[in-house]
Amino acid sequence: MTEEQRLEPGAAAQLALNTLTAQIQVLIASTSGSTKLQAESLQTLLVSNMQMITEASNDQVDDYNAICDVLECRDKELQKAQDEAVRLAKELRNLQAGRAEDEKKVRAIMAEHEQVKNQRDNYKRDADETGKLRAEVKRLKNQAANHVDAQAKKDAQLATANQTIQRLRSRLGPTAEAVRSCLEMMRFTRNAMIFEGVATEQTIEHNGEQFHIYRRPGNVASGFKPMNTDQQVSRAHQFYFRVETNSGYHCDVVPLANGDAAAAKHKALPVAVKKHLVSLFNDETMFDRDKLVLRSDALSERLNEIEATIVPLDALLQGLDRQLITQGVVSHSRVNASKHNKRRAA
Fold first, then answer.
1. Where does the record place a coiled coil (predicted)?
2. Dihedral sign, CA of 303, 221, 341, 343?
3. What pLDDT shows up at residue 244?
């Protein structure tokens, strides 16, 4: 029986009752006596029982329909709850996105606040220094006014002025040392940038292996000793070559006093590469900084800034040294001399 032909329980019971009643009536008509009476009693009993079954099934159908109505209400409530959950999830995502944007703004505000605080501190320091200078100027003015009073006061003020001069000299000495240390650090940084950032000057291929050549500044005579040779290194050259290969092998090649070249190596340097390096050593002995090429434009720009800063620092240091020597404060500074020797390029 298909979905459209399905009967309700009451209708099915009534159909079954009609069929059985018809059969019993045929039996009653064809019998007599006690058999007929039993058949009629059976018909009455069947009708009453079928009515009871029909009523019970109808009650169950009513209960089922009521449950279906409740389920439909629950489905509607569930659908409504799901729609509300979708709406709340969307609202939550919007709130989270807004919170992330707010946090970004807060971080920006905090960063700006930190910068403003730094500016405030800088201005405060400037104000403090200005206040000190004003107090010093006022004191000097008072001293100058007192010079007119008496020679004795002038002598006392002269002694005070001499003390002030000594104090200024004591301040000037550390300033000169600070400038000297700064100049040494700038030179050290410049050499470090050259050594670490210099680009490949040439690449030579030999038997499938690439030899990358770097020209590096340095006093060969003081920075190198003879390597696996009895010959002396050149005392004229101010540069040497760093050779690196694509197989991970590298060595420093330095010129020798006899016009040859030697390398600190773990395996033999190819003749073609060594011959080419010897020819480059023979071409010149000084390291030309104008031909210096670094690995990136940023390094080149920073090196130019350092070079430009070294010149005025050197002039300032010379001026301070002249003032200190003239005023008899120091004859020659040896502060950080050992550190300077360690930082200076080979």
1. 71-126
2. positive
3. 85
Torsion angle of C-alpha atoms 102, 104, 108, 111, degrees rounded to 10: 110
- Beta-sheet strands, E only, within the chain: 202-206, 209-217, 239-245, 250-255, 261-263
pLDDT at 196: 61
For CA atoms 223, 228, 233, 238, give the dihedral sign.
Answer: negative
Catalogue the long-range contacts made by 20-27 (C-beta closer than 8 Å, 24 or more residues apart): 20/46, 20/50, 21/46, 21/47
Contacts (Cβ under 8 Å, ≥6 apart) of 226: 232, 233, 256, 262
Q: Flag residues of the chain having pLDDT under 50.
A: 1-3, 329-346
Would you state the structure tokens that stand for residue 9, as one six-digit string? 């329980």
DSSP classification of residue 198: B
Residue 255's pLDDT is what?
92
* CA quadruple 218, 223, 229, 234: dihedral sign: positive
pTM of the entire predicted model: 0.32
**At 209, phi and psi to the nearest 5?**
-110, 140
Per-residue exposure over 253-281, b if at least 16 CB sit within 10 Å of its own CB, e if not: bbbbeeeebbbeeeeebbeebbebbbebb
Q: Three-state SS across 205-256?
A: EECCEEEEEEEEECCHHHHCCCCCCCCCECCCCCEEEEEEECCCCEEEEEEE
Are residues 62 and 22 in contact, defined by beta-carbon separation less than 8 angstroms?
A: no
End-to-end CA distance of the chain: 105
Residue among 295, 339, 313 nearest 193 (CA): 295
Q: CA 192 from chain center: how many Å? A: 24
Note whether 218 and 345 are within 8 A (CB).
Answer: yes
CA distances from 24 to 29, 52, 201 (A): 9, 19, 120
H or E segment at 167? helix 151-197
**Contact by Cβ (8 Å): 217, 345:** yes
Per-residue pLDDT, 51: 82
